């Protein structure tokens, strides 16, 4: 079975190094047998999550669309910047909203339940965004995802990429490829049996 895997970057900033790493992941996964989807948060603008807002207005259409897209996947690669040793609010807010979706049409859903999640980041600092990746683990587990052990934090963003191989350092390329391979393998073995459109 060819797993369905999506990639989402936690930044929409022009020139974001994490978007660049997400595109590198797409290039590499595009050479495999996976069914690949790119999720761009620009396409899913959402208000800040507020419980009162949800009660008064319901779940926004873009949260429903995002949840539907996630619900179709077996795996998800999160490529996330680190903000103050934690997660970026843009992506956290999108996940908070999507996690509130319980029905799509006449079907009950839990968009993240059983979803296999891989984590990657790139940062100007020497830690490569490692603290942010560790902060994602309890968040994704709390919504029902299976977070794989492999992850890849890419340090020194200014020197991390080249024009020929995408990632400049052999050791980083090996870690990134190991993450992608693990994401594919676990997504294939734990492929969700949820009904999809």
UniProtKB/TrEMBL annotation:
Pfam families from the entry?
Answer: FMN_red
Query: EC number(s) per UniProt?
Result: 1.-.-.-
Top-rank EC class of the record's enzyme: oxidoreductase
Q: Which SUPFAM superfamilies match?
A: Flavoproteins
Source domain of life is: Bacteria
Q: Which UniProt keywords apply?
A: Oxidoreductase
MF (Gene Ontology): oxidoreductase activity
Domain named NADPH-dependent FMN reductase-like is located at: 3-157
Q: What is this protein called?
A: NAD(P)H-dependent oxidoreductase
Organism name? Fulvimarina uroteuthidis
